[in-house]
Every structure is written in structure tokens, then in C-alpha cells.
Amino acid sequence: MSEFVRSAVVTGASTGIGRACVEKFVAEGWQVFAGVRKAEDGERLKAEIGEAVIPLIFDVTDGEAVARAGEYVREALMGSTLGALVNNAGIAVAGPLLHLPVEEMEKQMDVNVTGQLRAVQAFAPLLGADRELSGPPGRIVNISSVAGFSANPLLTPYSCSKFAMEAFTQGLRRELIMYGIDVVAINPGPIATPIWDKAEAMDAEQYAGTDYIGAIRRILGYMLERGRSGMPASKVADAVWTAITAKRPKLNTVITPEPFTQFLLGALPGRMSDRLITKRLGLTPEALAKTAK
Ligand code: NAD
Description:
By secondary structure, the protein is of the alpha/beta class. The protein contains eleven helices and seven strands. The chain has a seven-stranded parallel β-sheet, sandwiched between helices. Strand 5, helix 5 and strand 6 form a beta-alpha-beta unit. Helix 1 packs across helix 8 and helix 4 runs parallel beside helix 5. The protein is elongated, with a radius of gyration of 20 Å. It starts with 6 loop residues before the first strand and ends with a helix. It binds nicotinamide-adenine-dinucleotide (NAD). The site of nicotinamide-adenine-dinucleotide has 27 residues, from helix 1 and helix 6.
């Protein structure tokens, strides 16, 4: 018998929310197969969190590597089911749709959407869709976002991926009900993680000379500021833990330091939200008229 309560796979475990989930699961006595892209990140997690961490090296865009990781976990579980899959790996692509290089949208969707599909195909059999395995079925928790309900201009590629994640979650849940595998989403607002610093690395100046450059600089500033003042990743990990262990988990759990803004965005008529958001970013006809042609 394993010394662990159960086992989970967490994708994108090297930093931020993924890492916080690994810490939480291990603290609760679980073994965690931690998906990372670099071997040294896996070793670091193991050294810092403990022997219950088993690194799995894969990029979610590499189907063969993800499938190999699935086989590795199957062997390690020796005929038992996996307790949970946390689909967390993700990137945030920003840029105005009129000028965004198409490859950037493809990359966004490949990592945040198709990447989750690859992970589901590799690990969902182990959650109990493979009926040869013994043990209770596991659950899937998808780390979506509040951006899965409302799209901010210039962050539309990211929102596209998270809206898609909502459909993916709902459809997958309905496809896996027959196996007793539940599928839910967590929808964080701003959380203090390195994803925001990566936004700083984005080359906003590629949009210099377009009508969007001022708004892009502004939105990158907001992203950095909101990210740094965001909630700790451990709050999301706590919500993931509840989603895994509650008898009847919520289908969507929103975690945000800005619940009122979130409520307003959902409650206001769409055109009124459009006006508020575009005014804040300087994306109105009046603002455009003040700039040179
Ligand atoms: P992060 O940058 O710290 O973590 C992202 C993780 O995904 C990293 O471990 C990274 O290595 C991994 N990753 C990126 N591309 C990958 C790929 N191709 N293959 C495998 N792994 C890959 O940021 P985070 O904020 O912890 O993000 C985790 C998830 O939370 C993402 O899906 C993100 O969209 C979501 N989220 C974050 C926030 C926030 O404010 N930070 C809010 C809502 C949702």
C-alpha cells in the first residue's frame, strides 16, 4: 500500500498557482506528479517541497511528451486510479487583434486550450475512464480565469483561451459523468504570480505606430500593478483543494480581490461595460481624435 493518501498530476507546477497546488497537496499527505518543462525545476520542487513530489518533464504543446508522462504515472500507480488532474499550465498573450501576429494567437490557444486536451487524453484514463483500474474516480480541476467570463481589450487572446476553457470544462464534465469523474473550473482574478512579470517582458513597442500603443502601455502598467497587488497563489490552491475534496464542488469558483468589480462586469448591460472599459484605456473615438493620424 502507498504511504500517500492519493496522487495528483499538476501541470505548469514550476511557479505560481501550480507550485502552490503542489505544496497544498503534499501538505495534505498526497503524492504529486508535478509537470514542469525543465528538469532543474523538478529537482528544485522536490528539494524544496519533499520526496512526495515526482517531477514529470513535459511541455503541454508536445503531445508525445505528455503521453509519455501519462504512461509513467500509470506505471507508478500500479493499477490504482489517480486522484486529481489540475490543468494549470498557461500563458497570457496580449496585443490588439488588428495587429497581433497570428502565430501569437495560435501559441496562446495551443498552450492554454489544446495543451489541456493533451493532458486530459494522457491522464483522464488514469482518473477512472480506464475501467480496468481500481479505486475511486478522480477529478479534474481546470484553472480558468475571470477572463473566461469577460474579455478585456488587448488581452483578448488570453480571454479567448479562457472562454474556451469554460466550454472545455462544461463539455468534458458532461462527457465524463458516466465514469464518475467530476470536472470543475477555478476562476481567479489577479493573483500575485510570475505570469505578470512575463507581461513586462512583452514587446509593447512592436505596436508603436498603431492607434493602440497608448492603451497597450496603459494596460501593461495595470497588469503589473494588479498582479503585484493580487491575492497569494495559496488562496487558489486552497480553492483547488476544496474542488478536489468537497462532496459537491462548485462548477466555477471565483477567487478575486475585486469581487465588486467582477460583480459589476457581470451585472452591467454590455454596452455600458464597453463604455467604461474603453474610456479607462483611452480607446474611445474622442481619445483617438486627439492623437495624430
Ligand atoms: P505562472 O507563469 O507562474 O505559471 C504558469 C505555469 O505554466 C509555469 O509553471 C509555466 O512554466 C507553465 N507553462 C507555461 N507554458 C507551458 C507549456 N507550454 N507547457 C508546460 N507548462 C507551461 O503563472 P500563474 O499565474 O501561476 O498561472 C497559472 C494558471 O493560472 C494559468 O493558466 C493562468 O492563466 C491562470 N490564472 C492566473 C491568474 C493570475 O492573476 N496570476 C489569474 C487567473 C488565472
